[in-house]
Design goal:
Blueprint (H helix, E strand, L loop, with lengths): L1 H23 L2 E8 L10 E4 L5 E3 L5 E7 L2 E8 L6 E7 L3 E7 L10 E4 L2 E4 L7 E5 L22 E5 L8 E5 L12 E4 L2 E2 L20 E7 L2 H4 L10 E6 L9 E12 L9 H11 L2 H5 L8 H5 L3 E14 L2 E13 L6 E11 L2 E2 L4 E16 L3 H8 L21 E2 L2 E2 L7 H6 L2 E18 L6 E20 L14 E24 L4 E18 L4 E2 L5 E3 L5 E18 L3 E12 L6 E12 L4 H4 L4 E15 L14 E3 L6 E3 L2 E3 L2 E3 L9 E14 L4 E13 L2 E5 L9 E5 L2 E17 L3 E18 L11 E5 L7 E5 L7 E4 L2 E3 L5 E6 L14 E5 L4 E11 L2 E11 L2 E3 L1 H5 L19 H4 L12 E3 L2 E16 L4 E16 L21 E10 L1
Parallel strand pairs: 1-7, 13-16
Antiparallel strand pairs: 1-4, 2-3, 2-5, 5-6, 8-9, 10-15, 11-12, 13-14, 15-16, 17-18, 17-57, 18-19, 19-20, 20-22, 21-22, 22-25, 23-24, 25-26, 26-27, 27-28, 27-29, 28-31, 29-30, 31-32, 32-33, 33-34, 34-39, 35-38, 36-37, 39-40, 40-43, 41-42, 43-44, 44-51, 45-46, 46-47, 47-50, 48-49, 51-52, 52-55, ...
């Protein structure tokens, strides 16, 4: 009985306490969030500081927060694009009414910018750092992260590697700093420097990251900004920060879906069936004329298609009590315009960022994963479609031979030297792969209780990739008809592991007595890379080995670093930055390299003689110098400085009895190979006018790379190898960057933003020899189709990188090239290889971008136009198919480029400068139209729709299919499609 009574009293007491607790929290706050003009700001987050209580402003800017404990509180309102506002409120048991009037963040000087191992206010930067946030990303269907900022940053050239699903881009920051070592920038995702090398089974490492998860890009360009990363920073650093939940936010659910159709914009100019028949009849033998068919097949139309893609993303973000979180999943399925090509990617990410011990300990955990399934189309079909006889049919009518596809026969058998049916090359080759990737880290940032100026930061991270694939061709396919008993079956795989340990201490102190502020940081970094590549045999239909398995290889290299940085500010006007990094690499015997930098900035606008100037709102001078390094000479070159033996392949095995033993062979090496170093000078001015409605900067830079890591020919009889990596020579890049962003018009209902940037960059090879005078011809590069081992470019001291090495064509009075007649450039009376000259380069001298956006009430319109000027391109499709000899084969015919109608070349003229064409272009990257429906379905769901066109138009003089080919050699290039897309965004 006593227990029963006790239970009843306890229950009653709990009820009373709950009632009192509920009553005590019965207060509420409601109000409105507006801008300077009094217009509502829907979507703004309003929360009680230090709690998880929050609300989101509706379409009219109104909000309500309930269950507030009476007392003094701080209410915070924030939204991207406006300055955060905090308001003290004495809350009671009734409803308090407040209004937030947010000021537009036009200056952006207090914006926090991610730098190496930390953050800084934008106004305090001394180096050349560009920030592109999600609101400024390129629009439309984006399958690879690099496409988000194409054209957005001066000094950064991003050239897509074609239109294949998931195709990556070639990224150059202020020109390439090397010849044969990597020229790719260091990419850091949420604090983890990732491996840029493509894994087997994937065409682009960045395509494995969901672009929808990315919040911002911070691009570090000059050495004063990048030297903190030392040995990997010669080509710039791109820091990618992904989206996170925020303290005080309620659960926010967002869903986006983009569906697109891609179409071919044009075809390579070749003869149609009628033109081809005329050429053969006029210039062929009776036997060749007899090979003509009666069909009219456009082979390029047979290999291309209109392709559909869908990209869907779901994200949940917010804060559970004091635990901010964001969880997302994504699904992409993208067909390519080249038939059979496809990418299907499933991705997921999670971010947790709690703060503990009164915000003294901040933890940031990120895990991202993706599974990408590729089907690769045989890009050899592109050249085959250009060359295949247009008078022949797609199918032979005999389903028993070659799957029913037409193929060239001789004496009733497949003629293996003839061009294969391009449609069959696509349909009968099954090249599939699956690539798994996960990137993650956990970062602890602790601010000492007894010394809050001192922080300690520990970052543990990883990057793991695994690729598996199979290339299968059936027995009846012409591609592998004569491989053993027919058919070809090959498995391939690769695994990459990357482990990271970063630790640093950071001390920040304001010394008000001497008007100074110091920010000192010092730390240690360890990163280890392992790449494992098994070898597999090639089998025929019956399972017999036709090509023996290659050797299993496992390569490892390790980086160990010590680094430090000092930021000193005097009177909030004069800023000095000094950094030092000492890197050690396992790739070289001379393990260690030192990479210092120094930078100075002067806030001129804060000087008395400019402080009261109303027109000028910002003016800062920046000066910087630094040295960065390079040691990445690629996978498989991890032991280039070591004397070693490697296994020979199966073809060099020795047989003893019934057993075959692989041989060991001495490998070439250079024990003195060392760091490649790049010294950079930077002078810049940042400016702002009219309360920063107009902002921008001008940068002048000079980069000189010494001790170039290059793959050169070894002297005859030395080193047991034909070529080896060594340090040889130097090169330079010099240039100017200019950017201007403006808001020309801003009214109650209308806003116009515009941005323009232009970059001038000129590179030159200074030396390719250790001797003081360098008179060598140079290093040949740029392989082409046609012949065996032919090249069209060269690297020579005194000239641009990858200059075209060609003969100077002589023309007749009508302006037509004369076959085989070239200028005697050296005047020795004989035209031979010594008369080749270095003509132009694939590198643009100027690249620029203009982007603009218009917002009228709920409507938005935006576009981006980009141009490269001064880049030249070698039309290999025309040179390889531009002579009568191309079709004059004994047992088959091959189509010709339309250039033959003008040149009348009877033989191929691969090295004529006639085929080096001006590749300058103007391209509209995208045109986007959007409409914001506001809050729908009882004002609970935000709805926005957009229509987008990518690759809208291209203006160029180039006669080929697409002038934007980074290598400068137009051969088997997967064309960029025009993409029409419709997107929908829902916010709950």
């Amino acid at each position: 009985m006593k227990k029963t009574r006790f239970a009843r009293y306890a229950l009653l007491l709990c009820f009373v306490l709950i009632s009192l607790f509920t009553y005590a929290q019965s207060g509420s706050i409601s109000g409105k969030v507006t801008d300077d003009a009094g217009q509502p700001i829907p979507g703004a987050t309003v929360f009680i500081k230090g709690t998880s209580k929050n609300a989101t402003a509706d379409a009219e800017g109104k909000f309500t927060i309930t269950g507030i404990t009476p007392g003094n509180i701080v209410v915070v309102a924030r939204i991207l694009g406006y300055e955060t506002f905090e308001m003290p409120v004495n809350a009671g048991n009734s409803t308090e009414s407040i209004t937030f009037q947010l000021k537009a963040d036009t200056k952006g000087l207090n914006e926090i910018v991610v730098v190496g191992y930390g953050t800084q206010k934008k106004s305090d930067l001394t180096g050349a750092i560009a920030v592109v946030s999600s609101k400024d990303f390129n629009k439309g269907p984006i399958s690879s992260a690099d496409q988000l900022i194409t054209g957005k940053v001066p000094g950064v050239q991003i050239t897509s590697n074609g239109g294949a699903p998931g195709a990556g881009s070639t990224i150059r920051v202020r020109g390439g700093a090397s010849l044969n070592a990597t020229n790719d920038p260091l990419i850091i995702i949420d604090g983890v420097p990732v491996d840029n090398n493509n894994i087997s089974g994937a065409s682009n490492a960045l395509a494995l990251i969901n672009p929808n998860d990315i919040e911002s890009f911070n691009v570090l360009k000059d050495a004063s900004a990048t030297a903190i990363y030392g040995s990997r920073a010669s080509n710039g650093v791109i820091i990618i920060t992904t989206k996170k939940g925020r303290l005080g936010d309620q659960l926010h659910v967002s869903f986006s879906s983009t569906n697109a159709v891609s179409k071919v914009t044009g075809f390579s100019p070749v003869l149609n069936a009628s033109q081809f028949s005329d050429v053969v009849r006029q210039n062929g033998t009776a036997a060749q004329i007899a090979l003509l068919g009666t069909d009219n097949t456009d082979w390029q139309k047979q290999i291309y298609q209109s392709a559909f893609s869908t990209d869907n993303n779901l994200a949940l973000s917010g804060a559970w009590k004091k635990l901010p979180y964001r969880i997302s999943v994504g699904y992409l399925n993208q067909d390519g315009i080249l038939k059979t090509s496809n990418l299907e990617r499933n991705s997921a990410s999670i971010n947790l960022s709690p703060s503990l011990f009164d915000d003294h300990l901040k933890i940031n955990m990120n895990v991202k994963g993706s599974i990408a399934d590729y089907r690769f189309a045989d890009q050899g079909a592109i050249n085959a479609a250009i060359a295949y006889d247009p008078t022949k049919p797609l199918r032979s009518g005999n389903s028993n031979d070659f799957g029913g596809y037409y193929e060239w026969l001789y004496n009733g058998k497949l003629y293996d030297l003839a061009t294969k049916n391009p449609a069959a090359m696509l349909e009968q080759k099954m090249d599939k792969s699956q690539v798994k990737r996960s990137i993650g880290n956990i970062q602890f940032d602790y601010k000492f209780h007894f010394l809050p100026e001192l922080r300690v930061n520990l970052n543990l991270g990883y990057d793991y990739q695994k690729g598996d694939g199979n290339t299968n061709i059936p027995k009846y396919a012409a591609l592998s008809y004569y491989n053993g008993t027919g058919g070809s079956y090959k498995h391939y795989s690769q695994e990459m592991k990357n482990k990271l340990f970063d630790f640093y201490l950071n001390y920040v102190k304001d010394l008000k007595g001497i008007k100074s502020r110091i920010d000192v940081m010092g730390g240690y970094s360890y990163q280890d890379f392992i790449t494992a590549t098994p070898g597999y045999p090639t089998l025929d239909e019956s399972g017999d080995t036709t090509t023996a398995a290659g050797n299993y290889s496992e390569a490892q290299h390790t980086l160990v670093s010590f680094f430090g940085r000092l930021n000193y500010t005097f009177n909030d006007k004069y800023l000095l930055t000094f950094t030092m990094r000492r890197d050690g690499t396992s790739r070289f015997r001379q393990h260690w390299g030192n990479f210092p930098s120094v930078a100075f900035a002067w806030k001129l606008k804060d000087e008395p003689f400019l402080k009261n100037t109303k027109t000028l709102s910002d003016l800062k001078l920046r000066l910087g110098y630094g040295v960065t390094g390079q040691e990445n000479i690629g996978v498989g070159k991890e032991y280039a400085a070591l004397s070693r033996y490697t296994y020979g392949d199966a073809n060099s095995s020795y047989q003893l009895g019934d057993v075959f033993y692989k041989t060991l062979r001495a490998a070439g090496y250079d024990q003195n190979i060392k760091w490649e170093q790049t010294a950079t000078y930077n002078v810049a001015v940042d400016y702002g006018f009219l309360d920063n409605k107009i902002t921008g900067s001008v940068d002048f830079y000079y980069k000189k790379t010494t001790d170039l890591l290059a793959d050169v020919t070894a002297p005859t009889g030395t080193n047991l190898t034909n070529t080896l990596y060594t340090n040889i020579g130097s090169l330079e890049n010099r240039g100017v960057e200019f950017i201007i962003n403006a808001t020309p018009v801003e009214t109650k209902d209308f806003r116009w933003n515009a941005g323009f940037n232009v970059t001038y960059n000129k590179n030159k090879i200074l030396s390719l020899s250790k001797a003081q005078t360098d008179t060598s011809v140079g290093i040949a590069t740029g392989g082409i189709s046609g012949g065996t081992g032919n090249t069209i470019q060269i690297n020579t001291a005194g000239h641009q990188i990858n200059s075209f090495y060609v003969y100077k064509q002589i023309y007749d009075k009508a302006g037509n090239p004369i076959e085989g007649v070239y200028e005697d450039t050296n005047g020795d009376g004989v035209v031979n290889a010594d008369d080749k000259y270095r003509y132009k380069s694939s590198n643009p001298v100027v690249y620029l971008n203009f982007n603009s956006s218009f917002n009228y009430k709920q409507w938005s319109l935006g576009f981006s136009v980009r141009s490269n000027i001064g880049n030249y391109i070698y039309n290999n499709q025309a040179s390889n198919n531009g002579s009568y000899k191309t079709f004059q084969n004994s047992n088959y015919l091959a189509n010709l480029s339309t250039s033959v109608l003008k040149t009348k070349f009877r033989n191929t003229q691969y090295w004529s400068d006639y085929y080096v064409e001006n590749g300058s272009f103007l391209r509209m990257d995208y045109l986007n139209l959007g409409y914001d429906f506001g809050r729908v379905i009882n004002k609970k769901v935000g709805l926005r729709a957009n229509f987008n066109v990518q690759n809208v138009f291209v203006i160029t003089k180039y006669s080929g299919q697409d002038p934007e080919v980074f290598s400068g050699i137009d051969d088997k290039f997967y064309p960029r499609p025009r993409v029409y897309s419709l997107g929908v965004n829902l916010d709950f």
